[in-house]
Amino acid sequence: MSKTSKTQMVKEYIFNEAEAGRIKSGKRLPSCREVAAKLSVNKLTVNKAYHELESEHKVFSIPRGGFYLVDCGEKRLIARKPLDFITVKPDEKLIPYREFTHVINKAVDLYKDSLFEYESTAGLTTLRDTLMNMFQQEGIYTTADRIVITHGAQQAINLVLQAIFQNNKGKLIVEVPTYGLALEYASYLGIDVIGIERKENGFDYHELELLFKQGDILAFYVIPRHHNPTGYRLSESHKKIIAELAGKYNVLVIEDDYLADVGYRKGSMPIHYYDIKKQVVYIRSFSKTFMPGLRLGAAVLPESIIESVTKLKKLSDLNTSRLPQAALDIFIKSGMYEKQVKKVRKSYEAKLNKAREILLSLSPSELSWHVPEYGIFIWLRLPEYVNINTLEKKLESQGILIKSAREFFLKQEIVQEDNVNHLNYIRLCISGIPEADISSIAAIVSAIHSFDV
Predict the structure, then answer these.
(1) Residue from 356, 347, 298, 358 nearest 325 by CA
(2) pTM (2 d.p.)
(3) Which residue, of 17, 281, 338, 341, is most buried by count of CB atoms within 10 Å of its CB?
(4) 295 with 327: CB under 8 angstroms?
(5) Which domains does the chain have, with CATH numbers?
(6) What is the mean pLDDT of residues 12-19?
(7) Cβ(163)–Cβ(308) under 8 Å?
């Protein structure tokens, strides 16, 4: 028997094991020693077969970690719940149901005499005091009366945009790309929006200053850490520049730090920390680490807009329910919140590390990608020859959901002929993907490979 046929025999063995379900998608292949003994061939032959399978995009390797199966057929994937890389939601295993039940019961007991009374529009006093202390430890120096509790970060963004632009003619600068709902809010409110490109290393700060100099810029909406959709982060020097420019040209910075709890480098501070002129609105969400369905967020507001935001909030919903606010307050004070944050961070970091290893091992040179150290987003720019719509359908048939990133771009950016490739960006959200299934990114890369020309 020739060496070539022995190599093929090893490959056929792996295919048969996968078809029988004994080797599953994303799982490690048997060691070379084990297969060599099983088939009575040389370990070098097995190693050669594995490398051929890798070049055929059937398996991927992790340095000093062995070889792993990319997929084992569409039927098994279709039979299970789709893997959703589109929706921003936590893995169900990370939701603290038991702890939440405890703090809700504690909150009911604590506030049983006033549970159904209206709360202050700005939020539960004890929670705002707790957040003030919590924020100060993170470099966000404020007083409790400058904090407004909202129904998630989304409501905070909406209220702040209304407060700034309702009686003022001016423009809003946004990053390109940026959070899709922020663009929708701006469009709905009739705000004139100008985009500035967000790159991995930040912005063109000469261009940003020229925009600020125009005099008609009222606000700049920016996500400095855990950028949505790219996962990029701004350096400390760049945050300082933004704070200085905002103070110099009297532009309000709307700092969306919604994912602050999922981790960042030591020494990383929000823009608010560098704000001397009190020009920064700081927005935070607790939905990604507490209970997503409760929709709790907070805004730290400068004196110039706090009255307007509070009035608008009162008109829109009167107040945020006392019960979830009390539960969050207890959750933080008890130490359970810190414990939950550590659990979430550990899970997300493990997923990102595995995703990075897969992309390093498998991705074609034409695929541009970014996997951050912390956060929940992976940013892909597909090769020009990949049709995003065809890719979506192909992966959906395998039980994997992805979506074009066009919603994160300004409409005028998409329709410009020079920017048609904006359709070929993909944001992969890993937060709702179980850690055991993060290896399905290999199937996404394999599907991209299938377009290779």
Answers:
(1) 298
(2) 0.83
(3) 281
(4) no
(5) 1-72 (1.10.10.10), 79-88+335-453 (3.90.1150.10), 118-334 (3.40.640.10)
(6) 84
(7) yes
